[in-house]
């Protein structure tokens, strides 16, 4: 299977990730079938990237062609794609997928089929620890300032969590915790409280920060 043979792709879920991937493909001359008829489809599509590819391999007859492409958010801007091989993914499928990602202008990294892959295995526990730092009263607004100026991150972990969506962060932490069976990945209670209260981040106008105000609220608290 050669990359030039890929002329049509299907994207299930027309949310931020799905629509971004569709835009990437269409801009490079690939016909796109974008479908989202289920009101819960967006929530499911957010979780797709974190379901083990081996699960899908067991469900169909095309197990040699099962492979994961994990785009970063937002897909048209972020330059990275993680490729995750299933247990039986063929070399031809891997090569075609890698070539397609490069056709999208992405740098490719490869991960084994484990929860979180590479980026989220490292990133989400860091975000979770930032919530614990806020929750236990170690610091508040200095958490983001410290990480931006001390480690040269473009966004602090709490700002980034709001951008990603606190509900998405919580979902990933639950998958890491369940999939790896390690208490280190238990979601911070404060993150759980924020999500339960509907404080999902930028998309809701309030998360760790309050975006309804003219100037972003920086008076953070370890309690709701």
UniProtKB/TrEMBL annotation:
InterPro entries: 3-OHacyl-CoA_DH (IPR022694), 3-OHacyl-CoA_DH_CS (IPR006180), 3-OHacyl-CoA_DH_NAD-bd (IPR006176), 3HC_DH_C (IPR006108), 6-PGluconate_DH-like_C_sf (IPR008927), 6PGD_dom2 (IPR013328), NAD(P)-bd_dom_sf (IPR036291). GO terms for biological process: fatty acid metabolic process. It catalyses: a (3S)-3-hydroxyacyl-CoA = a (2E)-enoyl-CoA + H2O; a 4-saturated-(3S)-3-hydroxyacyl-CoA = a (3E)-enoyl-CoA + H2O. Keywords: Oxidoreductase. GO terms for molecular function: enoyl-CoA hydratase activity; NAD+ binding; oxidoreductase activity, acting on the CH-OH group of donors, NAD or NADP as acceptor. The record marks 70 as: Important for catalytic activity. This is 3-hydroxybutyryl-CoA dehydrogenase. It comes from Rhododendron simsii.
């Amino acid at each position: 299977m050669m990359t030039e043979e890929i002329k049509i792709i299907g994207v299930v879920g027309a949310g931020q990730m799905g629509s971004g991937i569709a835009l990437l493909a269409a801009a490079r001359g690939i016909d796109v079938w974008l479908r989202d008829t289920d009101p819960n489809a967006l929530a499911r599509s957010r979780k797709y990237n974190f379901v083990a590819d081996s699960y899908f391999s067991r469900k169909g007859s095309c197990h040699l062609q099962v492979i994961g492409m994990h785009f970063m958010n937002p897909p048209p801007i972020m330059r990275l794609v993680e490729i995750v091989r299933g247990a039986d993914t063929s070399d031809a499928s891997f090569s075609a997928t890698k070539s397609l990602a490069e056709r999208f202008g992405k740098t490719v990294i490869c991960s084994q089929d484990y929860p979180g892959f590479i980026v989220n295995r490292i990133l989400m526990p860091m975000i979770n620890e930032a919530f614990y730092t806020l929750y236990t009263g170690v610091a508040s607004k200095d958490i983001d300032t410290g990480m931006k100026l001390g480690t040269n991150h473009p966004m602090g972990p709490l700002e980034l969590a709001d951008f990603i969506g606190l509900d998405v962060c919580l979902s990933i932490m639950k998958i890491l915790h369940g999939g790896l069976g390690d208490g280190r990945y238990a979601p911070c209670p404060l993150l759980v409280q924020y999500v339960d209260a509907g404080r999902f981040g930028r998309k809701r106008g309030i998360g760790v920060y309050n975006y309804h105000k003219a100037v972003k609220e920086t008076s953070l608290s370890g309690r709701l």
